[in-house]
Every structure is written in structure tokens, then in C-alpha cells.
Amino acid sequence: MTALAEKLASSAHFLVPPLIVWFRSNRRELPWRIQPSPYRIWVSELMLQQTQVVTVIPYFDRFIARFPNIASLAAADLEDVLKLWEGLGYYSRARRLHEAARQLTEARRELPHTYADLLRLPGVGPYTAAAIASIAFGEPVAVVDGNVARLFSRVWAITTSIDTPVMRRDLRDRLQLLLDGVAPAEFNEAVMELGALVCRPRNPDCDNCPLRDQCIARRDGLTHDLPRRRKRADVPLRRLVAAVVHSEGEVLIAKRAPDAMLGGLWHFPDATSTSNAALETILPGLFYERLGVSVTAGRSYRCIRHAYSHFKIDLTGVDCTLSTTRAVVKCDLAGADSIRWVTVAQCERLPFDRASLRLIDQIKQRHHQNSS
DNA sequence: AATTCGGGGCT
DNA sequence: AGCCCAGAATT
Q1: Helices A146-155 and A165-178, packing angle to 10 deg
Q2: Within 7 A of a protein CB, which nucleotides of strand B?
Q3: Whether pLDDT at A2 is above 70
Q4: Fewer CB within 10 Å: N-end or C-end of chain A?
């Protein structure tokens, strides 16, 4: 046994029991913890990637009501799956979940039971495979999500950046030793829950932490300096102009290609604006390139600012009318899968990204004003 | 190892 | 308004 392993094995004795005791009386009754099944745990873990519990709950309930098992999910249209995911973000998760369900159904297999096999599924990486394997099937594999990394970077006062593969592996190896001799599901849920509820990013509730006497960061006054992470590059701003093309009481929408950003979601045909001229002035030029038709620009909508992780957008919608018949508009928009003419009301049945949803709200408001 | 993917919460 | 947070896949 290495020196580190020995040290951890002995510290496990002091760490694990208070952790488990704490968890048993602070465990939240979450939808996926009531009547747990491998499928429900799988869906919840996909939704919980990058996303907090309170955000996920309503999405999870609606998703499970509509797709109660793998077969029903596999049989669904991707568009309907995306509609239920609308607003939750990281839509590739929904695409991969759907794809995995289809693969399993095609092969007439159930969800795999082991970490190694789960890891092969689209959308399942090291964290998710460990979470499903341990929680649904009791396999003793340690989970390291953001909560766990933060918690133990403090408990052990580790100053390596937590957002590196090396650090994640190191933590997983250390926790794997703690896992010896305890129920894997309970231990993993306990560390994630403690990180989420007590060892919070800001305002950690150290006074009520079951590990307060073992926590080195607390002892050394480092809690607020940990965890460390790499500096993030600051994000550029893109100015987008979106054409709300009206024709015969309908508007033109386009579906993004499946592998594009926000793939499979609908939006209003848009273009990046590089000049400082008024959008109404430059829009016809932009859209002649994108749509191959001339449009006349009318009133603009209020600018919508939206933040993604690696850039921000200022999205401005502009009412447009066609200078020719609508039949001329073809689907060779760069990056678009297909186009449709729909009433604003019909938009509610199709999946849109969040910025487009806000534009739809503005269009509805203007409609309402015009008719009253 | 670094970059590409959304969106929400907190201050 | 700005800062912080968080997994998988790709390159």
C-alpha cells in the first residue's frame, strides 16, 4: 500500500461515517429518487450535466410523463424530444439521449449495467457512467462531478485547478479508496449532495458541515480560495440580425442542421452584422446573400442580449416583407436543414432556442398591439 | 490539453 | 450587468 493510500484509508474512517449520517437526514426527495429505475436515473443524470437540480425537476417530470421508458423515447421524433428539452440548454444531450435509446432498442438491449459498457453510450462520459453504474446498479465506482471536486479540493486543500483531467483523475482515485466497504450509491449521492447543499461555491455552510473537523481548507482559512480553476478567456460579442419575414399571415422559420450549434432547433433566419449602419439599412443586403431573395425591412424589435459560454449575442429582429412571391424562398440557407412558413401560434409546437423564444414573445406583443 | 457546446443563479 | 458554475465530445 502506498503512503497516500494508507493515509486515505485511515482518514476514511473519520470522513465516511459522519458523511453518511449527515446524508441520511439531509437527503432530498427528488423525483428520480422516488421509484428509482435505471431509465429514470439515466435521464436525470443526462439532464443534470451542467445543470442544477431545481432547474431539472420540472423538465424531468414532463419528460418521464411523455417518455416513460426507453422504447417510447426511441420511437419518438427528435423534434418532440427537443421540444421537451427546450430551454434546458446543451441540446446535444437530448440528441445523444435519443440516439442512445434508438441504438439500445435497435439492438434489443436494456441499459448496460457496468461503468465500462455505459461509457460507450452517446452522451455518457466518465461522470455519468459512474453515476448510473453506482446508483442504479451498485457498482463501486467513484463519481467526480463539480460538487464533489469542489468539496474535496477544500477538504484536502488541493490547489491544483479542478478543471483539468489530471485533477479529476486524481480525485477519482482518492475517492475510489474511500468507497471501499460502503454502499456505493449512498456514498456517491452523499458527496454530491453535500457539495451541492453545504460546500457551496459561495457562502459554504461550514458550521453545519459533517466534515468540518476534517476539512483542511477550513482549518487553514483557505475555504474561499478553493477550488482553484483556470482563467477563462473573455467572450466576444456578436451582433445578429434576424429576419421576421411576413407573408400571408405567416412567418418564415428555419431549422438548424443536426450537427450545428443548437442543432435541430428552429430559429428565424439570421446573419451577423459587421457594420455600424442601421440594421434596417443593411438587412436587405445580408438577406439577399442568405436567402437569395430581396426583402424590404420594416420596424426593428427590441435588442435581445443572450450569453452563451464562449460568446454573447445581441439579437435584433426586423419585420420584413418579400419583394417577390414566397415560392422563391428556398432552403439553401447556409446551415439550415429546412424552412417552413408558420403562424406565430404554431411556433409553440416546435422547438426553438431561448433567444428565439424571446423574439417570438416580442412578435406576439406587437401582433397584439396592432390588432387592438 | 484546449476548445466547443447553453443557460441560470448569485451579487 | 458581470461573474461564476458545470460534463461530453472533438481536435
Answers
A1: 80
A2: 1-11
A3: no
A4: C
Is there contact between A50 and strand C, defined as CB under 7 Å from any strand atom?
Answer: yes
Q: Tell me how crowded residue A173 is: count the other CB atoms within 10 A of its CB.
A: 14
Count each helix (H run) and each strand (E run) in chain A, helices first.
14, 8
Answer whether any strand C atom is within 7 A of the Cβ of A201: yes
Please name the residue whose C-alpha is nearest to the C1' of nucleotide B10: A202
Residue A320, all three cell numbers: 420584413
Find how far residue A157's CA is from the centre of its chain: 29
For position A367, what pLDDT does the model report?
85
A45 is annotated as an active-site residue: yes
- Which residue, among A112, A106, A204, has the nearest Cα to A153 in the 3D structure? A204
- What's the pLDDT tens digit per position in A245-269? 999 999 999 999 988 899 999 999 9
Q: Is the pLDDT of residue A96 over 90?
A: yes
Q: pLDDT tens-digit profile of A71-87?
A: 999 999 999 999 999 99
Contacts of A176 (CB under 8 A, 6+ apart): A140, A141, A142
**Closest to A73 (Cα-Cα) out of A49, A97, A109:** A97
Is there contact between A188 and strand C, defined as CB under 7 Å from any strand atom?
no
Q: What percent of chain A has pLDDT over 90?
A: 75
Protein A2 CA to nucleic acid C11 C1', in Å?
36
**Would you tell me how many other CB atoms lie within 10 Å of the CB of residue A281?**
10
* φ and ψ of A249, to 5 deg: 75, 5
Residue spans of alpha helices (H) in A107-251: 115-118, 126-137, 146-155, 165-178, 184-197, 216-220
Give the pLDDT score at A295: 86
**Residues A301/A316, Cβ–Cβ less than 8 Å:** yes
